Every structure is written in C-alpha cells, then in structure tokens.
C-alpha cells in the first residue's frame, strides 16, 4: 500500500465499530506504513536541512530555490503530522479491539 492510498483510506474513528480479525490485521499494517512513511519523511527533511546548510556556506542557493524548499518543507511537515495522527488513531482502534476481545465471554 502506498502513502497516498493510506491517507485516502484513513482509519475510521467510530469507537463503536467492531473490527473483524481481517480488518484488525489490516489496521496493524496501515499503522506500520504510517510510521515508516513519517520516519522516512523526517529523515528526508533532515537530509535537505543538511544539504542546505552545506550549500549555504558556499553561497550557491538562489532565492527561488530557497523559497521552493521552504514551501516544500512546510508541506512535508504537515504530511508528517497527519501520519503521526493517523498512527495514533490506528493504535487507539487496535487497543479498543483488544479490550473488546478480552471482554468477550467464551461460549
């Protein structure tokens, strides 16, 4: 599953929704995709920062490039925030599902 599909799919916030075993397993995978994507983006932003610091010392970054990178970093920051929020929602759903299963009385 790629990042665009993950963000479009999102995770239901309805606390009363009971997940099937298949949905719960899918949720675990989606949470991991969100976590990995956020980590990769954070490392990419750090690399861009390192690059800018090194190139900036040479005085070779133009105003247009700096402006574009600034807007890019703003967008990436927002995407990272959304991924962290998605991971939290998925974690809450997983925990609620575990609580429901523990509360079930065997027949």
Write up what this structure looks like:
There is one protein chain. The chain has 107 residues and is mainly alpha-helical. The chain has one domain (23-97). It has three helices and no strands. The protein has helices at 3-9, 21-58, 63-103. The longest helix is centred in the C-terminal third of the chain and has 41 residues, at 63-103. It starts with a helix and ends with a helix. The mean pLDDT is 74.
Averaged pLDDT: 74
Report low-confidence residues grouped into runs of 5 or more.
Answer: none
Evaluate the radius of gyration: 20 Å
Largest sheet: none
How many extended strands? 0
Structural class: mainly alpha
Throw out a few tags for this protein.
107 residues; mainly alpha
Task: Give me a quick take on this structure.
By secondary structure, this protein is an all-alpha fold. It is built from 3 helices and no strands.
Question: How are the SSEs ordered, and which strands pair?
Answer:
Layout: H1 3-9, H2 21-58, H3 63-103
Helix pairs in contact: 2-3
């Amino acid at each position: 599953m790629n990042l665009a599909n993950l963000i479009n799919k999102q995770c239901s916030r309805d606390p009363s929704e009971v997940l099937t075993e298949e949905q719960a397993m899918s949720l675990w995978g989606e949470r991991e995709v969100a976590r990995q994507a956020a980590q990769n983006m954070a490392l990419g932003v750090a690399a861009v920062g390192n690059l800018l610091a090194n190139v900036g010392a040479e005085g070779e970054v133009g105003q247009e490039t700096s402006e574009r990178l600034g807007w890019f970093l703003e967008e990436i920051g927002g995407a990272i925030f959304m991924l962290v929020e998605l991971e939290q929602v998925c974690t809450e759903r997983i925990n609620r599902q575990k609580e429901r299963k523990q509360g079930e009385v065997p027949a």
